[in-house]
Write a structure and sequence with these properties.
The chain has 67 residues and is of the alpha+beta class. It has a 3-stranded antiparallel β-sheet with strand order 1-3-2, covered by helices on one side. Helix content is 19%, strand content 33%.
């Protein structure tokens, strides 16, 4: 997974109102980070992040997302 690919986090976006997609993301380890509206887009998007576990067993520190 994360170690093999060298990733510290993976992000995902889905339609804010698409509750089934949001539930799937949460079930596979993604955490809801908030919502945003993209310029020129009439649909709000839910933003999720999955982070690599740290050696102590916790999650990696959050990395700020640039808008």
């Amino acid at each position: 997974g994360f170690e093999r690919l060298g990733f510290t986090r993976v992000t995902a976006n889905t339609d804010l109102e698409h509750h089934l997609s949001r539930r799937v993301l949460e079930k596979i380890g993604f955490e809801y980070q908030g919502s945003r509206r993209y310029e020129g887009d009439a649909v709000d998007s839910a933003f999720f992040v999955a982070k690599r576990a740290t050696p102590g067993g916790g999650r990696a520190n959050p990395i700020p997302h640039a808008d």
